Amino acid sequence: TRWSGFLTSSIDSGQTWSQPFLLPGGILGPIKNKPLLLQDGRLLCGSSIQSYLNWACSFEWTRDEGLTWERSNPIPYFEERRAPFFPDKKSASKDRPVGVIQPTFWTEDGQHITMLCRSRRIGWICKATSSDGGRTWTRAYPTELPNPDSGFDAVRMFDGRIALVYNHSKTKRTPLNLALSIDGGETWKDVLVLEDGPGSFAYPAIIQTQDGLLHITYTWNRKHIKHIALDPTSL
Fold this sequence. Notes:
The protein is globular. The protein is built from no helices and 17 strands.
């Protein structure tokens, strides 16, 4: 995959932006989902790579607004095996790649971090954890949340609950659901169906603003971007 990462910044709450500058080779920045600013001053970015046979997540961080970077080792799926070498194209199916990408993550104290990641050819959202601020991670393993090889996003709310927007399906990008966890992502309860008709409702993003509202955006049938605002006290 031929990807490069760029960084741009704003000093007026997003009204205007600086010219983007190229990140160092091998540093991609956050892939799909938002980064987190940790208590120790590091901006932690969940990254991933979609290589030929094996997808994997990793984490990158900067202490100086993007001038210098460090990164974790790749975070593989727990059943990873050494892939055989394919001598010709006929031997390699287009569905051969397996692994995890596009992590979303949260923390309570800046050291213990939980990551959920999109999976391919696994059928479930996968999870990994770090106890040292994202520097090292466990392998990713399946949860009980289905995943149709589609992106999702989560946020830790002000009241400590985790809100997750995802497709509750192993094969389709519908329905699109909102689930909540009261135990740091150990268990989940679906509380709202955002979309359940035919079509594709994908690539959601979720944040909580200072007024307490949850804001969710997602692609609507690959034609529009839909925005929903919710009061989490009603969930």
